[in-house]
């Protein structure tokens, strides 16, 4: 979470909020949101490849990437509802346990 989000009262992911507010016919907006989410997942995937988690074999790299991505998205969405960074912090703790 950015310092700006902390300062302005946690409001979740701006891209998700934009996507939920846009008209279903606004392909340009949805493409922008989708591109952002795909870049985030790609970044997570690249980071997963860098860590040594083979000793656990709990999840493949692909499943670990998806798990982290979905935990992050869920933490952001839930945090926006409660105006709290606590769900996102909890998601980070879960990820730390997995890796």
Would you kindly provide a written description of the structure presented here, covering whatever features stand out?
It is flat and about 45 Å long. The chain is mainly alpha-helical and 99 residues long. The chain is built from five helices and no strands. The protein has one domain. The chain starts with a helix and ends with a helix.
SSE inventory with pairings:
Elements: H1 3-7, H2 14-21, H3 27-50, H4 61-82, H5 86-98
Helix pairs in contact: 2-3, 3-4, 4-5
- Stretches where pLDDT is under 50 for at least 5 consecutive residues are none
In N-to-C order, the SSE pattern is HHHHH
What is the number of helices? Answer: 5
Estimate percent helicity.
over 70%
Number of structural units classed as domains: 1
Strand fraction equals under 5%
**Which term fits the overall shape?**
flat
Content-based structural category: mainly alpha
Tally of extended strands?
0
Distance between the termini: 20 Å
How large, in whole angstroms, is the Cα Rg? Answer: 15 Å
Please state the average pLDDT score. 79
* Main sheet makeup: none
